Amino acid sequence: MKPRTRYMLIGGALLLVAILFSPRLKLFSSSERSGGGAGQKDVRLPVTAMVLRPGPLSNAIRATGTILATEEVELRSEIAGKIDRIVFREGSRVRKGDLLLKINGDELQAQMQKLESQVKLAEEKERRRRMLFDKQNISSEDYEIALNELNSIKAELAYNRARFEKTDLRAPFNGVIGLRYVSEGSYVSSTTRIASLQDLERVKIDFAVPERYAQVVQVGQAVRFTRAGSDQVYAGEIFAIEPKIDPQSRTLQVRAMAANPGGRLVPGGFAEVTLELQRFDAALLVPSQSLIPELGGQKVFVVKDGKAVAVPVTIGVRTDTRVQILNGVQAGDTVITTGILQLASGLPVQLTSVE
After folding, report:
1. pLDDT (tens digit, 9 = 90+) per residue, 116-166?
2. Domain check: are 182 and 156 in the same one?
3. CATH number, domain at 303?
4. What is the SS3 assignment for 14?
């Protein structure tokens, strides 16, 4: 082979090798560079968390209620008749036993006078019959007839006296008179509404609690409430509980009592009631979304050495947004609050925000 031809073949072979191996060199170089970049990338999961700190917690029931007078009655006359005199003023305070209204009792007075005369005659008759009976001049039956006649007239006189006393309508307790619905000269009966009387020194607050709290609500527990149109908080105390649960609403009716200084609490008004069942001075609370249900309990994720660690916990009181942790974590632990669904125990995490 001629030298020139040999050189041409060798040059062609070298060119072919260069063409074949040049892409691989670039690929290997690119792959090495890419591998070096991946080694430097941060693969930690970004999350937010909170540091547990003890704080106060109140386990309370909130309910709507109605304000009632301690005592309330509609004033009506027990007997029918014409009103002779009205003594009370609308909106005034009265004392127990005060005369409020006078019904005409002329007919009852006349009837009593007649009966009083009959009683005197019957007493004299009974006296004479007793003397005869003592001498055995009459039988015991004759004497008993006179005695029964006397007792019958006395009973009728007592009945009329009782009716005459009812012509005076008196206040049954201390209170405030409401609006008047009759006038002097009006004819009233037992169905006629005259006015209302309410004791406003103290007020009752009626409200209902859900059935599940029936065993923890007790007489003597303190309540707080506000009235419509005011932010002032009033204090009261439970004094009576309905002994059964309402089968329609599945609630338990509760009644509290509260002072009414200045008469600011008006019966019939709306009350927003808070009943505190428990109070903790140093409770550990986590957001509700941090809690993960699992078979047989609950768990949260805490940050330890830059990694997420699952910790089983026991929970206590729930509020609208937070849950009390009784054990499993302690004050100072960092509990993860976001990215919960992507977490696994041992996964590296990056804290982007800590409360």
Report:
1. 999 999 999 999 988 988 888 888 888 899 999 999 999 999 999 999 999
2. yes
3. 2.40.420.20
4. helix
pTM for this structure?
A: 0.67
Residues 6+ apart with CB under 8 A from 282: 54, 55, 56
| pLDDT tens by residue, 297-332 | 999 999 999 999 999 999 988 888 899 999 999 999
The residues that bridge with 270 in the sheet, in sequence order, are: 66
Q: What is the DSSP secondary structure assignment for residue 178, as one 8-state letter?
A: -
At residue 35 the predicted structure's pLDDT band, cuts being 50, 70 and 90, is very low
Nearest to 82 by CA among 213, 224, 189: 189
Report the length, in residues, of the chain.
Answer: 355
Q: What are phi and psi of 340, to 5 degrees?
A: -60, -40
74: in domain: no
In a domain, 211, yes or no: yes
φ/ψ of 30, rounded to 5, equals -65, -40
175 pLDDT exceeds 80? yes
Number of domains comprising the chain: 4
Residue 342 lies in a domain: yes
- Parallel, antiparallel, or unpaired for β 307-318 and 349-354? unpaired
Backbone φ, ψ for residue 92 (5° rounding): -90, 160
Q: Are 6 and 13 in contact (CB under 8 A)?
A: no
Q: Which domain holds residue 3?
A: 1-40
